[in-house]
Structure formats: C-alpha cells, structure tokens
Model the fold of this input.
Amino acid sequence: MCKAFGPPEDLVVESVDDPVPGPGQLLVDVAAAAVVFPDTLMLQDKYQYKATPPYIPGGEVAGVVVGVGERADGWSIGDRVLGALGATGGYAELCAIPAASARRLPDSVDFAAAAGLNYAHGTTLYALQHRADLREGETLLVLGAGGSVGLSAVEIGKLIGARVIAAASTDEKLDVCRQRGADDTINYAADDLKERAKQLTDGKGVDVVFDCVGGETAEQALRAIAWEGRFLVVGFTAGIPSIPLNLVLLKSCQIVGVFYGAMTVREPERNAAIGEQLIDWVASGMLQPYVSARYPLERAGEALRAMLDRTVVGKVVITP
Done:
C-alpha cells in the first residue's frame, strides 16, 4: 500500500478486504505483477495518471482466474490470464481486472515472463512495427537498452530482422543486450554516442532510433540518424530533452511519438492484435522476455528503488 506520496521505501504491507469482481471483471489470484517505471512516478505524484493514497501500486498482472463477474463472458475459474488494471491494484494477492483487457495465457507461458508483456513489449511492437515501420535489414539504435522497455526493443528488433545497436550506461547491461541478440553495443557513459553510432554504420547513420531515455542522449542519437530516418519518442527516464529542429530539417527525418497507453483506449482492435501477437511469440519460444529478479510483496519497495535508480536489467516482477 502507498499510504502517502513519497519514496518507495514508504510502502507498507497490509491485509485488506478481498476484491469482488464486478460486471465485466475477473478476479485473479496474482502469480506475478509487473514493476514498471511509471509505478515509481505515481508514488511521487509525478505521473500523468493520478492515484489518490491510500492505493495499491501495479498496473499489470498474470495469474489464475478465481472469480468471474457478470457479463465477463467466455471466462472460467482456472483460466490462466494476463491482464491490465489501468495503473493500480496489482501488487496484491488478489485483484479484479477488466475482462476486456485480459488475454489468455497458454500453459507453456511463464507467469513472470508474461507480466509486463503489454507495458514493455506492447509499447515496443507498437513503436517499431506500427509507428516506425521498421524493415528487415534496417539499423535500429536502442537507447536505454538494458531496461525492460529497451531490452524488449532489442528482442523485437531482432525478430523483425533489423541490425540492432544497443546503447546503455553500463557494461553489465550491454552484456545482457548481446546475450539477447544485439549485434553491436555502445556504452554512452564512456563513448561518444553520435560518433560511435556513425562508426558502426560506416558514416551512414541509423535508420531508426528507439528512445525511452530522453535527456542528453536524445540529441546525440538524433545527430546519428540517417537521411529520412525515424526517431521514436518513447519515454523520458533521464528527463525531457530539448531538440534543435534544424537537425530534423537537415536530415529530412521524422520525430514520431509513441503513446501506447492512449492507443490501447483509442484502438482496442489494434491493441488486441498486438497482445495476441506477443503471446504467440512467447508461447512458440520466438520471444523469451528476460526476468532478472523476482521480489515478494514485502520487498516491493526494493524493486521500485532499483527501478528508480535505473539499476534494473531487463524486467523485475512482484510475486505475491
């Protein structure tokens, strides 16, 4: 429970009444809840979605259906499910999720691997395939490649057939990126991002930039983009950058916004197709999300602190 806005260390574990599934809802016995960067912002009242304390953090869970509300047609007790709650309620043993946002999980899909699939891999698939139209053989530069969203871009970029350059702030993160398929890596804490990206592309530049970091690296990456490249604006873990628009003109490139959360509401059919594609990939073994750590409820604050300090590699989950 978040009883008041503040650091993640202030979270407390409490017993509360079991939720009851309302019309169109499923009651889920939570096996894994995703830990994502917006959770840390909400705790500090810095996110666009505003929660009112006391509240339970966590917006995406995987588990087993233990209750079915009215008009939640087609679902039964015992079904394995992945579901989005919106933004709160997931760090719990039980939660009620909208049946409309739920996706069935095959028996072969691990709950921890599935939790957060929508947030990270859903954002990435929407960005790379639907916003940038990334093509086989193109070069993709991923900023913040060690985090959950960035690493998902490395994985899906390779599935699409792109040459992937992973950029991150530590050699440890880059080691994982190489293990997950990155063709080349850049440590932008030690190397000049623009110059290294240019070297790796023989001066041509990269076709697509996937930026979930922002901050100072954004302009460097834009300067490394190729003629008519696409720059994907995904997130700002290092702050919102100021971009000189003359660079966009000189490279005849595009800056493309990626607001996955809004798309899921505006285009539910597209969102459903993305979700099914991801689950199919995981079930077939083509996509294997990297889970670096699992925390019990009592250590949720530690998981969020690691996310806030940007020490997380891949993704972490809460396992009630």
Remarks:
- The two ends are 13 Å apart (CA to CA).
